[in-house]
Write a structure and sequence with these properties.
This protein is of the alpha/beta class and 149 residues long. 44% of the residues lie in helices and 15% in strands. It has helices spanning 13-23, 54-62, 74-82, 100-116, 128-146, and strands at 3-6, 27-31, 43-47, 68-70, 86-88, 94-95. A six-stranded mixed sheet has the order 3-2-1-4-5-6, sandwiched between helices.
Amino acid sequence: MKIYVDADACPVKAEVVRVAERHKLPVVFVANSWMRLPEGPLVERVVVEEGADAADDWIASNIGEGDIAITADIPLALRCIKAGSKAIGPTGKPFSDANIGMALAMRDLMSDLRERGDVKGYNAAFSKQDRSQFLQALEQAVQATKCGR
């Protein structure tokens, strides 16, 4: 079991490392450029070539059954689920077969509304509650994976 992190805009890098160290799990941070990341013996850094989906493509081609992906990118979450892994957003929202279709539909709807100017493109600020929900969701995903669920 490994944890793969879509690291470019991930606000919970330190939290991922904390949970990974507690469970002695390797973490792979994937990004389009070098960035400062938490250090540790279980932490691996992968810098992919420039490109809109280069990090996503790398994660999708390397992740496997029993792994966990951390990403806010819903299409990447879908690719990870199809590969047999779990996927969690940085706000703690777990993606699954049961909810990924609705998440994709909402993403497409909001994109269309932003393009038409019907809604502004502002995202809510990342909160302490989001961080807490993320830690809980990641812990649950690790426990479930260890138990074979």
